[in-house]
Amino acid sequence: MKFTKFLALFILLFSFWLLLSTKFEGWFHLFFGLLSTALVTLFTYDMVFVSEDRGNNIKKLFRFALYLPWILYQIILANVDVAKRVLDPKMPIDPRMITFRSVLKTDLSKTTLANSITLTPGTVTIDIDEDTFLIHAIAKESADDLLEGTMERKVAHVFMEDE
Amino acid sequence: MLITVINVISAVFIIVGLFFIVVGTIGLLRLPDFYSRMHATGKCDTLGVGLTIIGLIIYNGFNFISVKLLFLVVFIFVANPVATHAIARAAYKVGLQPWRRQ
């Protein structure tokens, strides 16, 4: 089991190294690539591939792929929103801190939600304590948008935690 | 003809990307406190750099360099919010109070 994990990560990292170096001939480069890949794999192989329910990973990946276009659209909205506020001479901002409790359970889904909150209009994640998110919102309407919970429902759907 | 079209499309991407980077910088200078400045830098850098790199990919065509650039976009989209969060959290733990409109 441990060896399978080691081998899987080694192959993944070494192909990534090959892709970045694009020097396929000459043993000198390949030797250093193998050496550094082996060292990195040795230090990190017990930290990756820690997901428990293997059966649903493909389904989650598929749902995440459907989530990506929506989040990209939100990122564009966020940037237009910032541009409007920053370039307006009166600068219509009214910052506030808000907290909310999340229904999400796993670290990966919480991280995804936190990153999505930071990338979407008017909100930045400051801190997560167990299931309580601390958010800095730049205006009242961005705080209200977040507290509506659309994004949290979408993330819960992606990671299948919405039963 | 096709070359011109590709050049124009990539130029549009790069110019829009640079616009958002400029907006982010103006925001960094104009906004009143640390936390609201995180909004400008955290969001605008992600999309600005992302669009600029996508413009470069279109200009460059499909080869190894484009694949590397694509990886750059992916890593920036993951790393930028994490870095923003880490800096903001550090400020919060130190006890920096957010600016409020009176």
Main features:
heterodimer, A: 163 residues, mainly alpha, three-stranded antiparallel β-sheet, 61% helix, 12% strand, extended, B: 102 residues, 3 helices
Task: Describe it.
The complex is a heterodimer of chains A (163) and B (102). Chain A is mainly alpha-helical. Chain A contains 6 helices and 3 strands; from the N terminus they run H-H-H-E-H-E-E-H-H. Chain A has a 3-stranded antiparallel β-sheet with strand order 1-3-2, covered by helices on one side. In chain A, helix 1 crosses helix 2 (27-44), helix 3 (57-87) runs antiparallel to helix 6 and helix 4 packs antiparallel against helix 6. Chain B is an all-alpha fold and 102 residues long. Chain B has one domain. Helix content of chain B is 85%, strand content 0%. Chain B contains 3 helices and no strands. Chain B has helices at 2-30, 34-60, 64-94. The longest helix of chain B is centred in the C-terminal third of the chain and has 31 residues, at 64-94. Chain B is elongated. The termini of chain B are far apart.
